[in-house]
Amino acid sequence: MKKKMYQNVAATHFREHSSIYLFVIVLFFMGVIFGAIVVNSLSFTQKEDLFYYLSQFFGQVSAEEVATSNDLFKQSLLHNAKYIGLIWLLGISIIGLPVILVMLFIKGMVVGFTVGFLVNQMAWDGFLLSFVSILPQNLVIIPVFIIAATLAVAFSLKMIKKQFMKRMGDPMLPLFGRYAASFAIALVFIAAAAGVEAFISPPLMKSVIQSIQ
């Protein structure tokens, strides 16, 4: 019974905010495409310099000289929690709406640039490295960021309507409670993604790097 109730709540949520979800998803993938295009605009020297540092990092991964899994977990969790927290704060500030969209675009651009650079420099091997080092945690992180950005945009729009258009609607306090709870749930998924990035991705990366060296 509870499962069906949650499914109905989720279905209603996605239906009510479908236009925002569509906009946010398109914006994110525009960032991914832009990041991939930026790779091709780099000069030969810039690509060589970046690839040199990347090769150094691969050497450290292969020799197990990178940070411990616990340190990686803390770093990933802290980084993504800060990002999510900033989106949450911007959602409750009316002027933060455009910044949320910029942050999402930049997130997509970083993913697109990283994958694009690896593929550009290493062809199939680069794709394989992207698959094991970037994809696992981002299967969780990207949907969380898209949902978080959508919720923040929706909440910000409701505040704008409430403040400037003097529209009557749902009381803001219960909405704020649900908004805060949704971001607390997002942090749980961010922690799961950090666990994947810290404990699963490094061994996969190491095995791929050793196989292509």
UniProtKB/TrEMBL annotation:
InterPro entries: SpoIIM, SpoIIM-like. It is found in: Cell membrane. It is a multi-pass membrane protein. Keywords: Cell membrane, Membrane, Sporulation, Transmembrane, Transmembrane helix. Its main location: membrane. The chain crosses the membrane at residues 20-44, 83-106, 113-134, 140-160, 180-200. Required for complete septum migration and engulfment of the forespore compartment during sporulation. Required for stabilizing and recruiting of SpoIIP to the septal membrane. Component of the MPD complex composed of SpoIIM, SpoIIP and SpoIID. This is Stage II sporulation protein M. It comes from Cytobacillus gottheilii.
